[in-house]
Design goal:
This protein has a six-stranded mixed β-sheet, with helices on both faces. Strands 7, 8, 9, 10 and 16 form a five-stranded mixed β-sheet that branches. A five-stranded antiparallel β-sheet has the order 12-11-13-14-15. It is built from ten helices and 16 strands. The longest helix is centred in the middle third of the chain and has 24 residues. The protein has two domains: 153 residues, Creatine Amidinohydrolase, Chain A, domain 1, CATH 3.40.350.10; 231 residues, Creatinase/methionine aminopeptidase superfamily (Creatine Amidinohydrolase). The radius of gyration is 23 Å and the shape is globular. With 416 residues, the chain is of the alpha+beta class. 31% of the residues lie in helices and 21% in strands.
Amino acid sequence: MSLDPNRPIPAPGHMGVDYEERVDFDRLRNYRLDRAKKSLETSQCGSFLLFDFYNIRYTTQTWIGGALGDKMTRYALLARGQDPYLWDFGSAVRHHKMYSRWVDDDNWRAGMLGLRGAVAPDAGLMRTAVAEIKGLLEDFGVADMPVGMDIVEPPFLFEMQRQGLTVVDSQQLMLDAREIKSQDEIILLSQAAAMVDGVYQDIVDVLKPGIRENEIVALANKRLYELGSDQVEAVNAISGERCNPHPHNFTDRIIRPGDQAFFDIIHSFNGYRTCYYRTFGVGSATDSQRDAYKIAREWMDVAIQAVRPGVGTDQIAKLWPKAGEFGFANEMAAFGLQFGHGLGLGLHERPIISRLNSIENPVEIKEGMVFALETYCPASDGFSAARIEEEVVVTSKGVEVLTRFPAQELFVANEY
């Protein structure tokens, strides 16, 4: 199945079925590994050694989440002309080998390096691991070429250098590989957004005076997991006087009549993420709140209209106000308010769009990119604010918006 440019991007459901072609996971796995291999082949590197768990998933098509996903103890080696080797969390390897059959049995290894320093480097686990990696690189004939690494604990880097390996950055190369999404990735991103569409309906049904921000967060987490999310990374809930300045977190604040409230739902479905803000009035809205929302919407719409293949991210960033125009001293202080960022296995992929970085270092927007655009406008009352975010897929014709909960005007929940 290829995506039909004349029809909306589907969100077909979670199951594979015999009567419709949906996500083809074999095709997805092959696409991602091929992109990573091509990135390696066109680089100066003989291999990539990957600790970033999104890069590990992209190249090996495996995943461990929760408490073990970010402990820097899983790593993968991709060498020229070879399939990936994976050092997985020790005791999980036996189980994973049974179900992830696309990784050759000989390429699965048990790994443990120290759990972010809980086991000190003096124990020798890193020394042994680097020696094993170096031995493989020698077998493959690439030990004299640079090893590209994405993220690393300093003691591991020092051990690589001590054993004579040259280390360079591969995160840029992996992000290059990940920036263009396949049709299967786009469908998974669409499905993830559709799940949040439904959660916003649940939120507006209960968004009344007396409910707390943390209760909204709890509701969103529960519903997302019921709908099939594999990870709820964060739910922000901001209301009332907390809206301006934006705190980027939630509390136990009780929501009150007339509050302006905005929420950000960040979760993943089969690894593919959302970042999806919506702003609401609670029962009613003031002229100041509506005006702020109208301005934030205008900033959003002008950006969406400008997105198309070949446009530079500087052209998008210039459409948004300068930091001083909405109350900030400089672009660093205002970062993340008028903002765009790629979406995929990671929350922040290519392109990153902001006046902070895009004016002087623009990136070309390409067909197949998927990213979120975020705008924020403080209200004239001094404490309310509007926050809007839309996720877009870049097509040959411009963009298609994946985030579909109504947002053209300020949505007043449970209006009096």
